[in-house]
User: Which sequence fits this backbone?
């Protein structure tokens, strides 16, 4: 069967869910420790790469846990994978971690799935959830330990409730699932941190961009994607204006 957006999204969701099940099973065999995170990264990465090679042998893959092949930069289709987003949270036995399987076509995150195994949920770009009612007071997900100054300033200006959370995927999917309204990150991420979440968020009807309003671009030589904004459309202009003032 030839790849298409629906088949790609179902493949991404199936692989992310399978990797999540593997990670949950492994988490049940070890006490919380650094070694648990290391083992989870390696085992999930192996499973994901094997499944993608079997299903899409012509495509390139960029994974956080695998050596990069510079030949990918000339490819139209690139799978962007984070086998275990939130290794720290996973190793601590928390549930705010994720598995990311994204597909970039011509540099655009068009298809993706994000598994939240600790919550028993996989969200994919072919079947996004309906948007929840918008609360009067916005809720912003932020880093548990080091919320970026830009996020703190915007949250304070909006009078937003700040919700500490672990992985990038967990934060982005909180907005997708309607338990938060704004995810603003600055200070450094990589393509695998946000390609799959961006694809799912776009499919859901959310605003997705860099914090200067420019689009996210993937499959560059430099794999860094240093900042992003995922939020309800209703808040996008206000947040971007506040960020511009901060400059």
Assistant:
């Amino acid at each position: 069967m030839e790849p298409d957006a629906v088949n790609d999204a179902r493949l991404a969701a199936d692989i992310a869910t399978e990797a999540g099940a593997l990670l949950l099973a492994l988490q049940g065999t070890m006490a919380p420790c650094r070694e648990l995170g290391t083992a989870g990264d390696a085992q999930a990465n192996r499973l994901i790469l094997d499944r993608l090679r079997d299903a899409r042998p012509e495509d390139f893959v960029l994974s956080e846990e695998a050596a990069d092949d510079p030949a990918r930069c000339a490819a139209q289709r690139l799978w962007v994978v984070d086998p275990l987003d939130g290794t720290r949270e996973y190793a601590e036995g928390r549930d705010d971690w994720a598995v990311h399987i994204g597909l970039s076509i011509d540099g655009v995150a068009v298809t993706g799935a994000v598994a939240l195994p600790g919550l028993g949920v996989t969200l994919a770009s072919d079947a996004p959830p309906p948007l929840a009612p918008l609360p009067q007071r916005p809720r912003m997900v932020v880093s548990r330990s080091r919320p970026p100054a830009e996020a703190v300033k915007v949250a304070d200006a909006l009078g937003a409730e700040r919700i500490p959370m672990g992985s990038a995927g967990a934060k982005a999917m909180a907005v997708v699932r309607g338990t938060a309204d704004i995810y603003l990150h600055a200070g450094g991420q990589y393509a695998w941190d946000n390609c799959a979440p961006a694809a799912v968020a776009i499919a859901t009807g959310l605003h997705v961009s860099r914090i200067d309003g420019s689009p996210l671009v993937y499959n560059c030589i430099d794999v860094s994607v240093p900042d992003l904004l995922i939020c309800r459309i209703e808040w996008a202009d206000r947040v971007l204006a506040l960020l511009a003032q901060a400059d």
Summary: The first helix runs from residue 5 to 27. The chain has two domains: 5-124, 139-246. The chain has a mean pLDDT of 94. The chain has seven helices and ten strands.
